[in-house]
Amino acid sequence: MYKNLLDKNKKLAVIGLGYVGLPIALEFAKKIKVIGFDINAGRVEMMRNKIDPSQELETNAFEGCDIEFTNDLEILKQANFFIVAVPTPVDDHNVPDLLPVKRASETIGKVIKKGDYVVFESTVYPGCTEEDCLPIIEKLSNLKNIIDFKTGYSPERINPGDKEHTLAKIIKVVSGCDAESLDLIAKVYELVVTAGVHKASSIKVAEAAKIIENTQRDLNIALMNELSIIFDKMGINTFEVLEAAGTKWNFLKFQPGLVGGHCIGVDPYYLTYKSKELGYDSQIILAGRVLNDGMAGYVAKKVLQHIIQNSSNIKDAKVLVLGATFKENVSDIRNSKVADVVKELQSFSLNVHVSDPHADSEELKHEYGFGLTTDIANDYDAVIVTVPHNNYKNLDDNYFSGITKEGAMIADLKGTYRGKINNRYYWSL
Q: What's the pTM?
């Protein structure tokens, strides 16, 4: 398999070309023949024209790549090594939604052949690959894992908006269904990951490793958020405290903030779901999730309290929210907790304007029911800077004074303007 891939006698396919799948497909396409498969015909056409629908990659990322973009199963059948990189969200009740990964398994079941390989990268709970996905592939293909085809799991570690920690520079965890598959999968990934690979002892270990990476971050951010609530009651600036504590060599430098997106705000629920299924109710992990999910309401409440104390007519009060994406310098709005802040403010009949240089207004309307304002006013009662996009970093005291009323609140959630706002009431987490 390995030599045939190198000699371009066989092809590698990536199923799901989002912010994870597309970079993987293009990186491999610099070395071997690749089929980029996505069920969305519109996205496929964009990529054929060297446009990344996720707005993460520039046009030059497509240069020199031996890749065919398609949504045609007949073309996908030409592949012999499949990588699955579809999303794994949760539903409105925070229950894992395995529909995308199950449908991807159905797709593979229709095209897989004897001797082929399948590697899942989608984030799932330990056991999902072998217990939920493989039976689907085996049933539709009439082939048996290990005997007829080989499987593995290699958790994605793509960080949207991060131009430093790219695919090639991050150690890749790999696993296989047996020793032979582990070695082959490791060699294939070593073609594009210069940082090297770490061979996990089993698929379940690799799945668990991915889950706890984001669970650990979620819990640490939850601690910072709880500390910010406590310090606010004490009249202490949390970022000043963290700056002081950070002078110790082993202090972990996490910060408070809204926790959204499709990783940190989602992955822990996969672990707690499986845990509950096995008879153990998570305590610490779910406590962190509850606290982080509640931060949007906490921020909205702080802003509302200030407006009540400083406005003669609350119903005419206006709030500007700067930043709608789930993190800085990306266009991705999936599971953005900024939307929760907006909805909380609107529930109190406040007039809320939202601005973001990266987000798409129509996408926001479709997903959350509000779009972006085209004109920023000059009489806001509060401004909430939720996401520290680079576009916002040079905003100063004069700018905020020019768009707000006297006594208005500047809620700077990430402490970007600490010590720089003098003419308005400043508050941060």
A: 0.90
